[in-house]
Amino acid sequence: MRIPLTWLREYAQVPAGATAEDVMTELVKVGFEEEAVHRPLDDIRGPIVVGQVLSRVEEPQSNGKTINWCTVRVVPEGQAQTLSGDGIDPSGVQGIVCGAHNFEVGDKVVVTLPGAVLPGDFRISPRNTYGHVSAGMIASVRELGIGEDHDGILVLGTLGLDPELGTDALELLGLRDEAAEINVTPDRGYVFSIRGVAREYAHATGTGFTDPAARVTVAAPSGPGYPVRLADEAPIYGRPGCDRFVARTVRGINPAAPTPPWMSARLRLAGIRSISLAVDISNYVMIELGQPLHFYDADKLAGDIVVRRAAVGETLKTLDGKVRALDAEDLLITDDSGAIGVAGVMGGAATEVSGTTVTVLIEAAHFEEVSIARSRRRHKLPSEASKRFERGVDWEVADEAAQRAVNLLVELAGGIEETAATDVGTAPAPVSVFLPAGFASARIGIDFTTEQITGSLTDLGAGVEAVDGGYAVTPPSWRHDLLTPEDLTEEIARLVGYDLIPATLPTAPPGRGYSRPQQQRRRVVQALADAGLTEILAYPFVSKAGNDTFGVAQAGAERAAIKLANPLSEEFGYLRTSVLPGLIETAKRNHSRGFHDLALFESGLVFLPSGTVGTASIPPLGVKPSEDVLDALYDGIPYQPLTIGALFTGKDTPAAPGHTPRTWDWADAIDAARLVADVVGVDLVVEQGSHQAFHPGRTAALTLRSGEVVGYAGELHPKLLAERHLPARTVAMEINASLVFDAAPDVIVARSISTYPIATQDVALVVPAEVPAAAVLEALREGAGELLEDVALFDEYQGTAIPAGRKSLAFGLRFRAADRTLTAEEASAARANAVDLAAQRFGATQR
User: Model-level pTM?
Assistant: First the structure.
């Protein structure tokens, strides 16, 4: 919310010298966040004054352009120029070259004199151009930074202004004002108005507040106004879509009447573009009072206005020129011709106020919040009006807002007010909240006095009545968020002062430290970081294609995923079933910015639903759910295993003199997976595998000793890499860390280090080509017995020296005893036993 300070000062006691920073400092005390400061004078500075064109001579140029050589008076006639500087004529008459043609002799204009600076650091100085010395510039609204029109200069008479020559144009056009911008939380929609901000500023400073709505006098209507009927007879969200509709009519307005500079300046500082007087008035009242308005060209209406839900197949051409298919849940404003607006979101083009409108029908209505929010999201139509309606608008202020708009149309557009008025609807029943006497003190830790409790709530605008055991509090009509004692307690603490809440640290109960999974996760994450990988944190939201590709190993296999009801982006509308899509998106983003050598990893939850997700009903607040209810809630939560993924692209190290970096390959991905298992004491079995996201021949399945597959590693599929513009041979791994952690021993026992020498022997075995090397290695390990300290594969060969359909696997075996030096015979015997077991299982023969 942007708050122009001159506007705020009309209703709050803001000191004359206070800046936007000062205002935000006060508002922070009552719970608002600072966002920004907006000052037009940060980009523009004088001397910029009002001048009058004394002469204008058109001079055609050789380039085909015609310029005007003008003399412009910038001080009242008979007075001397008080400004001085290079290019400023003491006589008060400046010679200026101007390329625009939308002005005449005698017009009053804005003149930027030498020494002035315009937005974009455009500095004005005398310059030789088209055979003249131009000492200044006659400015357009675009050059002043107050509009987009650059077809002609700003003629002040078109704004209804006739200021004295030499008047400060920055002051005249409202450019000396400034605005403070604060962040408004969704539960405090009443602050999306000068009315709400002024009230909060008064709370923060303990000063007075003038309610702008109280300044508007609404006379009793002389009779019924334009006929309106509320026909939402079957409310979808518990309340009627519209429970109040005020309509007022103003006739005989001047459609060419300009928006006064003070109004357009305030709207501009508030972040709203000035469009036309009628539209600007509707926006002005909305920002001032918080009540969105809609203006109709009354001469374009056909019959009674009816507020109803959309019919099947109904469409509407909205103000943005688009024809929209309406949903049965959309709340509409209609007449005999059909829909003329989506209630609270956007009006229809058929009844739009235009440059020929002379009769305006003003709508000030109160709509149900959820209907507006759903329609706004459904049609992707964010607007200032919907932003306020979604958060709740004061039911009581509709008639004052309509009257305020009527008054401005009469004052500024020359309209004639119709005294007849329409006001249909039923006021909501007042809400009373019981606040126990000691409730706020117990929750906040301050012994609030009765005066502090009642005073704070009364300042909010609430009705407070002392009753047995506490207070009966009736929240004001603009505070829809005050429904529970906790809500009231928060307001009391906020207004009394957050700075008075004692800063006491709770005594931490004795605990057992990190849980076993927490310890395991921290060890694994630290190990991967120590190995040179960079941890990332990706969004858990992915596309359907991402889940289809990475969520299951085989293409076309059944996959379940959770679709988000209200995603941030329709493209990423699912919860992830794999961490690899996030890693790939991160790598893609880094590659697009020139970072090609990457080793990334992420540890996070994935969401694997099975059966029913969620629960049919949500337990009520304030009551502890029964065990059955809790069980049902837990049953509806999808399985969420901790998953660790890693991705490698480019080189493993930077290039350097005498050093050639190595390209990451599939072995690095497997090593990263092995590292995860090794850190927690799990033996990971690596076998040839297949996964649709990985290269068909360069994929490893990662399994536990039990045979359960816990992940995959290897080179990503070339087609997938090409689609995502990643380098060929990019490798990755993903492992279900929850399953690995469950398989880990409770205590990892470190192997004692023997001081005796090792005995090494190699063996090359010829086995069928389809036999995995890991299976042969396991047979050697088992057959060699306890003397074997380590065994590793160091070569694989298929060629002319090996029969077709078979391959040679060469292993290095390392033997050592804990209590003696092994003899060559002992090592050879253990090696022979290992070879025998491999022969029994796979028909292995020594090469």
Answer: 0.67
